[in-house]
């Protein structure tokens, strides 16, 4: 049996974590690692202790804010970073695996927190119909490695 690469393990976990999302529009998962250890996980959704969008607004999702974005949810990257920091875990030098490339706001947080590498599965720009991935461009411009995942997802648990 061939041993899977850590990139494959962590991206597969991010894909499976995305299935925990209560977002009606998009499910996104994230895994924050240092070397070969997981330091935090996250998926998109409202802050803990509020309500779940798929329960409260099953047809339309949560209300939109003034810029057209979700008014309630935290992004998967934000949840992973916030949970690590809340538990006094340093994210400096960490690698973030995420199923959708970071938006510009998340990219600024990633850079500010000192995360050194982002590996993403799918393009945020393609999902949103934008000409380029602003978040990836921002990260690259300021020295954070950002690359699209090129491995194989062979052990992803499929929902029944």
Automatic annotation (TrEMBL):
Keyword DNA-binding recorded: no
Protein name as it appears in the record: Cytidine deaminase
PANTHER family cross-referenced by the UniProt entry: DEOXYCYTIDYLATE DEAMINASE (PTHR11086:SF18), DEOXYCYTIDYLATE DEAMINASE-RELATED (PTHR11086)
SUPFAM superfamilies membership: Cytidine deaminase-like
Stored PROSITE patterns: CYT_DCMP_DEAMINASES_1, CYT_DCMP_DEAMINASES_2
Record-annotated CMP/dCMP-type deaminase domain positions: 5-132
InterPro entries linked to this entry: APOBEC/CMP_deaminase_Zn-bd, CMP_dCMP_dom, Cytidine_deaminase-like, dCMP_deaminase-rel, Deoxycytidylate_deaminase_dom
GO cellular component: cytoplasm
Cofactor: Zn(2+)
One function term, GO molecular function aspect: dCMP deaminase activity
Organism domain of life: Bacteria
Family: Belongs to the cytidine and deoxycytidylate deaminase family.
Cited Pfam families: dCMP_cyt_deam_1
Keywords from the UniProt entry: Hydrolase, Metal-binding, Zinc
